[in-house]
TrEMBL record:
<dbReference type="Pfam" id="PF09822">
    <property type="entry name" value="ABC_transp_aux"/>
</dbReference>
<feature type="domain" description="DUF7088">
    <location>
        <begin position="33"/>
        <end position="143"/>
    </location>
</feature>
<protein>
    <submittedName>
        <fullName>Gliding motility-associated ABC transporter substrate-binding protein GldG</fullName>
    </submittedName>
</protein>
<feature type="transmembrane region" description="Helical">
    <location>
        <begin position="521"/>
        <end position="544"/>
    </location>
</feature>
<dbReference type="InterPro" id="IPR019196">
    <property type="entry name" value="ABC_transp_unknown"/>
</dbReference>
<dbReference type="InterPro" id="IPR055396">
    <property type="entry name" value="DUF7088"/>
</dbReference>
<feature type="transmembrane region" description="Helical">
    <location>
        <begin position="7"/>
        <end position="29"/>
    </location>
</feature>
<keyword id="KW-1133">Transmembrane helix</keyword>
<dbReference type="Pfam" id="PF23357">
    <property type="entry name" value="DUF7088"/>
</dbReference>
<keyword id="KW-0812">Transmembrane</keyword>
<feature type="domain" description="ABC-type uncharacterised transport system">
    <location>
        <begin position="189"/>
        <end position="486"/>
    </location>
</feature>
<keyword id="KW-0472">Membrane</keyword>
<dbReference type="InterPro" id="IPR019863">
    <property type="entry name" value="Motility-assoc_ABC-rel_GldG"/>
</dbReference>
Amino acid sequence: MKKIIFRFLFVLIILAGLNWLASLFFFRWDLTEDNRYTISDATKQLLSNLDKDVIVNVYLSGEFPPGFERLESATRETLEEFKTYSNGHLSFQFSDPSDAASEDERKKQYQNLVDRGLRPTNLFANEDGKRTEKLIFPGAIVQADTLAIPVQLLKGNKSSTPEEQLNQSYENVEFQLASAIRVLDNPAKKKVGLLVNHTQKLPPARLSDLIATMQQSYDVFMVVNDPETYEGLDALMVLKPDVPFSEEEKYKLDQYVIGGGKALFFVDGAKVDSVSLEGNYVQPLDLNLNDLFFRWGARINNNLVKDLNCATIPMNVGNMGDKPEIKAVPWRFFPLLNNFGPSPITRNTDAVYSRFLSSLDTVGGAPGIQKIPLLMTSPYTNLVNTPALVGYNEARQQPDPAEYKGGVKLAAVLLEGSFNSLFENRILPNDPRSKTFKATGQGKIIICADGDVVVNDYDYRRNTPLPLGYDRASSNIFGNKDFVMHALDYMTDENGIINSRSKQISIRALDKIAVHKDKKFWQVLNLLLPLVILGIFGAIRYYIRRRKFA
């Protein structure tokens, strides 16, 4: 009896000691192969430094198919981790917006969520032979004080299968939620300059959606006049210029990058002028940036890329009775960029919509600079050298696959590392600029060979801008905005929250053929194996007891 009491007290003391040690030293151990429950160090730092209470309302709740249940579980598990590291400053709740007392109340709840920025998704299912439809809101509202940010949890590449899209959404949950929390908790926004003084033919309204989106996270400055320097800006964006840069302006860009600046160039290699309803005249565009780009290890060519993987345009293909028949036909001069490089900027991003894209090459002679491809075309391309007349009649013609063997063309590239100045050995000692001139320095540059990637369309009938990446012909919204915002985030994010987009969770799908073939075997095994194990355990226990008390 004394031995039993002693053992009990000993175990109790051990458990109490372990509990006391656990209260002093906090740790969590992720035993999964792909570290699916581990959040990045940057996110942990963000949460631990929270100085205001953050409330996350998730509207992904209710009866869902297994894929959406997995997304709901991933969101809940991520928020549990967030709550652990937030020192009590984060709370969350899940609710079902379809749960209402009446249909009118349900519609009001739906409209409220739409007004707050969440996009609904229709779920279709077959129940008892009947096709059912349910509206869900796979998103969340992250709120702190009086500010609230909508977070769309269902995001991925639309060309992927539904299962892959859900898996991509699962991988992005941490980044989407952490980005919203960072905006709410970071009163000191980064400063981003938009260099538009060389963009004279593009109306300001065609950049309005990008600017409005950027203003949620950054302090945006329009660089209209020629400043003395670009110092003080955390990033500089050159948006679809159509007027050449002077040598002095090029020198300022050079020194900004050499001084540690981050620059994003969205520039065209060819100028497209509409000459008639029949087509466009395309000619080379010289912005006087070629030698600067070449020094950085890149070159934009004065051509156009035709790609069989392309968007569509509405075209009159004939008459239906006495009325013209308008159909959406593929326009190979509008490539859909759905081929991405190994970067968190483009991981799980939807296809990027481009118009009159030029090809981009990387060149040698730039030691110390790492060149990372971001956007690429499909392998089925053809190049059109400028000048050229691009007629819309080409859209009517069936393309010959034999003409589209140009291979994959680079459309956007990330350059980072040690840069050498273009003006090295060109600044004389008596030049006033020699006092501040820098010959080398660390920087980051993104060059995209299509200025239209950042340009939104405009509805002149309603006098309102359309979302960036919106295609009128298909009514699809492509991933242009996500690509630009992720690129800007990568360039300015010192903590590295953007790197959480690199998380990769493998889909371990069952072999359906093998499952169907061996279905009976596994059913019998699952039914009998537990009984066999239980019987063996009972027999061993009976034998031990009989031998002990014999």
